[in-house]
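ok here's the first one, seq then struct tokens
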Amino acid sequence: MSCDARIRPFPDETEVGCEQDADDHIEHVGVLRDYAYPGSTTYLRWYDDDRRNFHGEWPGACGLGPCTLPTGHNGRCAP
């Protein structure tokens, strides 16, 4: 079973999921394919406490003003 951590690294609906096994880890690794250019592979690393991180399905945007971060995020909001 793989880790259910996900991140939206940009202020759009692009999501990247952690591709590691679902063991006890706080650093996640995911791959963004074909984003920079067709055929490209971009590796992303993020920590569980990154304010863009969420687990499972997208919980919806924060809802405090124009914030694009997931509901319940840590830290300041981001437009």
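and now the second one, same deal
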Amino acid sequence: MSTINRATLPEEFYDKTTDLLLKQPEPQYLFAHLYMNALQAELSTPDAIGLAIEDRQVTGVNADYIAYDRDRLNLAAALPGELMAAELDFYKAPGNTIRLNRPKYTNTVYTEASRRISSGSTISTTPTSLGSEQTSLTLFRYAGPFDVGANAVAPYAVESFDALMGVHKLSKIVGVHLQRDYHRFIDVNFSGFGDAGGVVPIYPDEAVVADSGIPTAGAYPATVEQLSRGQQLMDDLNLPTLGDGHRVAVLRPAQWKQIKHDPEYTALSSFHKEFNLLFKSYVGTVSGFHVFVSTTLPAPVNGSGVAVAHGQLLAPGAFMCGMGSRPLVRSASDDNYGLTPKVIWEATMAFALADNRFILSFRSA
């Protein structure tokens, strides 16, 4: 005998979707917040989407949606603002460039004999030269989200009738996704500066000079000595430090774990409660660096199939950024008479390495 139930008569049953939301794991986006804190350039999302004329805006009448940062992983405090060499509000259109100068010093001859002016001798009246270096920051217009299938920036679109029927406010759902896309776009670009041309990579073993030299996973874990070598290289380059005499290391979680299990770290931390692994987990200061952990740093796979983590060692003034106009949520005029509003985020921004000497790529298997 057949029982009448959901399985035998599915047409008479429907599933209810609750307005409770589960957590979705999200990175901290350290570099995105460095940029946004420098210029106060957070993307604010409106309560309604669509053109603000007649009845063409769509909101939704149901449950609110999560704040974007509710589920975000927090592994460390914000990066220090001193990492930005320049923070400029251009208030200009895309394509405008600001040029920034830095002194260029020439080392000549400094022996005592070369500078001694003998009695009765004539000092030259022919001028000598001095130099200056220049870098530039150019504004570009950026937007999101991005449609991988179309290989182009494309809007989110909402059906106005369906917005009245959804469990959550569709305008809020769209806003959360726009913010996430904006944050990740900035973070990906800043995270990639460690691989820019001219940036010196350092490996756990000085015999390794390229990612291809790491044959197996875990063959070359990050070490305290590697951090110390990075500190020495930056000292030799006379790079500046933060006010407390330290610089910044941003590492992937695996790199920080490897350093904590390095026998040298264990020996150094055994007499300090705040660093000891037996006590509360601590992301702090090692070998002249304040250590931050980020899950969004690159870890490309080399020819041997080994993921090579690309951390960053940073001196103050490594980055520069600018803003021509504040990031905004923009609505398309093509909205089917208000029945299908479409929105993107758009901003006029500039970001670049101020000087590739101020960043080292900290690499390990």
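notes on #2: Confidence is low (pLDDT under 50) at residues 275-282. DSSP finds seven helices and 15 strands in the chain.
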